[in-house]
Every structure is written in structure tokens, then in C-alpha cells.
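Next comes one such specimen:
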Amino acid sequence: MSPLNGLNLAFLAALLGACSPSIAEPDTTGIEGKARAIDGDTVAIDFRLLGADAFERKQWCEMASGCAPCGKAAQDFAARFLARGPAMLRLTGQSSYGRPVAIAEVAGRDLGEAMIRAGYAVPRPGFLDHDPDRRARYLAAFAAAQEAKAGAMMGQWIDPAKWRKGDRLSCERERHTSRDWQQWRKEAD
């Protein structure tokens, strides 16, 4: 066999090795959290965002013309944000409400910061003491949302932590709205 044929065989073997599927070693670090089945071979685990506390899905806020579902608007905002592309979740090693805590980014943009800036979440700076840059960005985003009267900041709202404990606005207790929420959401976005 000539040296050239030997190199061709070595190159071909390397190429085939690089192109053939391999079985990767499983990642054994693991993630622990409450899981749910999407279908028979797809499982999802919910994550909580680090340092951002969004309005709860069933939470309402009071606007000039009535009660509006700011929690549903927050959920819709997060869904639209996540639909922009693949999400990068960085686990913090913390847990909240039985769920792993993570930082979520899409195309390099921080979901927590975006939620706060859009007026659909409030910052929790006490959870960001170890990350002073993120803490400053979240507090600046909150000030900007308040200044712009973005999202729920255009009206009255109950802090999500207090809402989870049972506090409600009077319009929530009355359960009637005087405004189409789709119109409110258009104005809020």
C-alpha cells in the first residue's frame, strides 16, 4: 500500500468517525422539580425566574376604566418572548415554591428584566444580592416601567406575593370588568 492510500484510509476513517452518530454519556447533574407529562415521551419542569415576580395568571389589576387581567397579560407576554427563539435556562441552585429557580434568556435578552420593564413583574432585589449588575438592571427596569406606566403600572395592583396570600383589589372581589381586556392589553403592550 502506498503512503498516499494509507493517508486516504486514515482520513476516511476519521471522517466516518466524525460523521457517525455517537452515544453521549448522560448528564448526571440532574434537575429536580415538579414534572408533568406533555405526552408519552415529553416531560416538562416549571422554573421560577430569579429576582422577578410576575403577576399571577388569575391576578387582576385596576385600570381607570375597570379591572383588567394583568396576570394573563403577563403570561401572554412571557409566551411571546419565549416564542422568539430557543431559550437558555441557567439554573441558580435555588428553589422557590418547589420549583428550580433559573435565569431565562432568549437571543441574549433576559426574560425577567423584560417582564419587569414591560410592567408585568416586580423585582425581588433580595434574591439578587449575589448579582449586583442584574439587581441594578432589574431596579432600573422597574423604575422605567413605572415612569412609562407600562403594563400594570398604568393602574393599581397588588404585589404578587401579597396576592398569593389572599389580598385582592375591590374590583377583583366584585368580579366585573367595564373594559374589554384585549383593548387594555393592546394599550399595555
Remarks:
- Residues 1-22 have pLDDT under 50 and may be disordered.
- Helices lie at 3-19, 70-82, 111-117, 132-148, 160-164, 170-174, 181-188.
- DSSP finds seven helices and ten strands in the chain.
- The chain has one domain: 35-188.
